[in-house]
User: Fold this.
Amino acid sequence: METSLNLTSKMPGTGTTIFAVMSALANEHGAVNLAQGFPDFNCPEKLVERVNHYMRLGKNQYAPMPGVPELRKKIAEKTLKCYGTEYDWQSEITVVGGATLSLFCAISAVVKENDEVIVIEPAYDSYIPAITLNGGKPVFSKLKYPTYQINWQEIKKLINFRTRAILINSPHNPCGTVLTASDMQELERLTENTDIVVISDEVYEHILFDGLKHQSACMFPGLASRSFIISSFGKTYHNTGWKMGYVLAPEKLTAEFRKIYQYVAFSTSTPVQYAFADFLEVESHYLALPKFYEQKRDFFRDLIKDSRFKVLPCSGSYFQLLGYDAISQQQDYELAVKLTKKSKIAGVPVSVFYHDKTDNKVLRFCFAKNEETLTKAAEILCRL
Ligand SMILES: Cc1ncc(COP(=O)(O)O)c(C=O)c1O
Assistant:
């Protein structure tokens, strides 16, 4: 439909997120889709049954704005069990419709015009738009190929009186790296005696391999007291389409968060919240997750070990990075599109996670898939 409206975009130069672009392209060309990060297997049957149960029971109206008490109490219990940290279920836990929304509200709650926010790149693609829409200025520290480790000396140099927040993400999308206790202590030291807010994206908190333990920001008192911790049920319970998660933060931060959240969404799905309140008790689900995904990681890596790709380390998340400079010198975005169209395999070019489109000739593939899908994908990758 034509419009004569004269509009100045608030987000000039912003297109559609890469995940939607690559998934649409994969569908259009019948490609095996290892691009977007979602499982191709179902979530636990018991969860589906519980949602149905609560729908039939009539739990179909607005939930309280911060989430149903039953679920918030269970989240408090689970956090204490997993990380040894107490959060008050009434004033420090908010149930939110997914981590993307949580990130947007947390950033909006603290970032004002001309504030600087330290973004460690490659970074999940919703961070920067949320910062700039709020008038903030992202300042960047780069994780360098092939180790993708944080350079804390560089972060130290970026910190100044304008620094409002720093965003961290562990386990990391797309790199598959995880932050160690000494990384967290370093951040604790760097932010000591400052007003810097930490926004800790921990959506893959239960997906760590080789015996590594998740170092949640909430385990470090100097970080817990200044952090929004962003969690997503979608990643832990194989139901990314339900868009459900929660935010942990000290009361003062939570109060500011809720001022925004109440007018962005107000609340989120009531029957799904009740279902999770029941299912969070099933510890075995999340305790089994590291092995479950480690097997998939190893299965996939083993299938492609003789390919011409360079298989980079993966310590957490469900993403495998593959370097392709022995195969092609094409720009990663162009190659990803070509592979989807011609070879029928879809991955995500890692350059899209850098604001300056740094291209190290690396593609990201999601291994949260059935063995059949992974086998099909590997057959194609081994032919390249
Ligand atoms: C690092 C990271 N943060 C946040 C999200 C968003 O999670 P949700 O689907 O709960 O909005 C994702 C999803 O892929 C992610 O990888």
